[in-house]
TrEMBL record:
<dbReference type="Pfam" id="PF22919">
    <property type="entry name" value="ATP-synt_VA_C"/>
</dbReference>
<dbReference type="Pfam" id="PF16886">
    <property type="entry name" value="ATP-synt_ab_Xtn"/>
</dbReference>
<dbReference type="InterPro" id="IPR000194">
    <property type="entry name" value="ATPase_F1/V1/A1_a/bsu_nucl-bd"/>
</dbReference>
<feature type="domain" description="ATP synthase A/B type C-terminal">
    <location>
        <begin position="298"/>
        <end position="394"/>
    </location>
</feature>
<dbReference type="InterPro" id="IPR020003">
    <property type="entry name" value="ATPase_a/bsu_AS"/>
</dbReference>
<protein>
    <submittedName>
        <fullName>V-type ATP synthase subunit A</fullName>
    </submittedName>
</protein>
<dbReference type="InterPro" id="IPR027417">
    <property type="entry name" value="P-loop_NTPase"/>
</dbReference>
<keyword id="KW-0067">ATP-binding</keyword>
<dbReference type="InterPro" id="IPR024034">
    <property type="entry name" value="ATPase_F1/V1_b/a_C"/>
</dbReference>
<dbReference type="InterPro" id="IPR055190">
    <property type="entry name" value="ATP-synt_VA_C"/>
</dbReference>
<dbReference type="GO" id="GO:0046034">
    <property type="term" value="P:ATP metabolic process"/>
</dbReference>
<keyword id="KW-0813">Transport</keyword>
<feature type="domain" description="ATPase F1/V1/A1 complex alpha/beta subunit nucleotide-binding">
    <location>
        <begin position="67"/>
        <end position="290"/>
    </location>
</feature>
<dbReference type="Pfam" id="PF00006">
    <property type="entry name" value="ATP-synt_ab"/>
</dbReference>
<dbReference type="GO" id="GO:0005524">
    <property type="term" value="F:ATP binding"/>
</dbReference>
<keyword id="KW-0406">Ion transport</keyword>
<dbReference type="InterPro" id="IPR022878">
    <property type="entry name" value="V-ATPase_asu"/>
</dbReference>
């Protein structure tokens, strides 16, 4: 915690306390201003509905690394960015937000339980003190701020909880920290707005929500950003806002979801079919999007690998082609497909199960660093390229899809820990040996 002069105070500092232990009401120093003396304590008072000022807003140039592969690889969010996680009941919104709170590389986490069940907040309180931050070896609870406003609390408090959380996030942003704010869920906050509006006898709009719902949602998400804080010392901080949306019945055309999409740049849509198939996180890779991909391309190229973005685009192309082929398979079956298309379907399945699917409760796979993500993509695409060359030469796809190699690709997310990336080289050697022997075998048969 850093001691900051409040934004609306300037002057000469005097009566500074020496280092020691003080309570929050202790006057640490006094600022002699034109309008009198101002006492500075260990806390600041600020109206929660008014954004805290800053010197300059900066462009998003660095990703908020979450450790979730489907997000970091395909739909990244920048530090200071905005994202929404819409999904029906039971699709895994809270689990995804807990994962983001645990493993994202933010300095401070603000978790707002707005109108949700009390047991979800209890789970955070019980689990987070036992988890260790991989960056500094300290308990994750030390960087986490919880705002518990569960469904049994007053409606007015629920409506204010969102603003309280974003103001606390801005306070730590002004210290130069990168803050990630999780709001679970903004739909319950919107319902509180609707109830307050009804009691005030205001004219209702669509589905009973107040007509100013969209502007209130916009005011909340627009307080995110990466900025230069006020003061002479250059301090760059950010607030990244990630809000869960709970549309009734999974209807994404309802007012809260449509209003949110106007103001966010990442949309991580949770799919009920994926959730029912036990595919978690159940983020739909075809309907989700991120507008930060182009802005973060340079960062990925410099810090991870120049080919990272190219690998991502190729894998997304495989998944898109697989979706088109699945329509044909539903009608006439997979047997009618040519071998090159059968290969696409099988490789897409490796990507879905071996890459996109991630166990939130695994000791190894719950948090996947970007270097590991890149190596996994590289190995999968190498398998696809080598197999595609042999299939084009007339080798049967059943020969190419060797069970031992496929199983290695499916399980490398669990079998390779963070400190053993050299094992990816061993996988590549096994693949090269297998494909070289298969190529020589068919070359010999062809010559004979």
């Amino acid at each position: 915690n850093k001691i900051m002069i409040p934004p609306n105070i300037s002057g000469k500092v005097k009566n500074v306390k020496s280092s020691g232990k003080y309570n929050v009401d202790t006057v640490l120093l006094t600022v002699e201003g034109k309008d009198g003396d101002h006492d500075v304590k260990l806390y600041q008072s600020w109206p929660v509905r008014i954004p805290r000022p800053y010197k300059e807003r900066l462009l998003p140039r660095e990703p908020l690394v979450t450790g979730i592969r489907v997000i970091d690889t395909f739909f990244p969010i920048s530090k200071g960015g905005t994202a929404a996680i819409p999904g029906g009941f039971g699709t895994g919104k809270t689990v995804v937000q807990h994962q983001l709170a645990k493993w994202s590389d933010a300095d401070v986490i603000v978790y707002i339980g707005c109108g949700e069940r009390g047991n979800e907040m209890t789970e955070v309180l019980e689990e987070f003190p036992q988890l260790i931050d991989p960056r500094n070896g300290r308990p994750l609870m030390e960087r986490t701020i919880l705002i518990a406003n569960t469904s049994n609390m007053p409606v007015s408090a629920r409506e204010a909880s969102i603003y309280t959380g974003i103001t606390i996030a801005e306070y730590f942003r002004d210290m130069g920290y990168n803050v990630a704010l999780m709001a679970d869920s903004t739909s319950r906050w919107a319902e509180a707005l609707r109830e307050i509006s009804g009691r005030l006898e205001e004219m209702p709009a669509e589905e009973g929500f107040p007509p100013y719902l969209a502007s209130r949602i916009g005011e909340f998400y627009e307080r995110a950003g990466r900025v230069n804080a006020l003061g002479e010392n250059k301090r760059v901080g950010s607030v990244s806002v990630i809000g869960a949306v709970s549309p009734p019945g999974g209807d994404f055309s309802e007012p809260v979801t449509t209003g949110t999409k106007r103001f966010i740049r990442c949309f991580w849509e949770l799919d009920r079919q994926l959730a029912n198939a036990r595919h978690h996180p159940s983020i739909n890779w075809l309907d989700s999007y991120s507008e930060y991909n182009s802005e973060l391309k340079e960062w990925f190229s410099k810090n991870i690998d120049p080919d990272f973005s190219k690998f991502r685009d190729r894998v997304m192309g495989i998944l898109t082609e697989d979706d088109n082929l699945q329509q044909i398979i539903k009608l006439v079956g997979e047997d009618v497909l040519p071998d090159n298309q059968k290969l696409i379907v099988r490789v897409a399945n490796i990507v879905k199960v071996g890459y996109l699917q991630q166990d939130a409760f695994s000791d190894v796979d719950s948090n996947c660093p970007l270097k590991k993500q890149h190596e996994m993509l590289k190995v999968i695409l190498k398998y696809y390229d080598r197999a595609g060359v042999l299939v084009s030469k007339g080798v049967a796809v059943s020969e190419v899809l060797d069970d031992s190699i496929v199983n290695i690709l499916m399980r490398m997310k669990e079998n390779i820990s963070m400190d053993k990336f050299d094992q990816f080289k061993e996988i590549e050697k096994k693949m090269d040996s297998f494909f070289d022997s298969l190529d020589n075998k068919y070359q010999t048969v062809k010559e004979a």
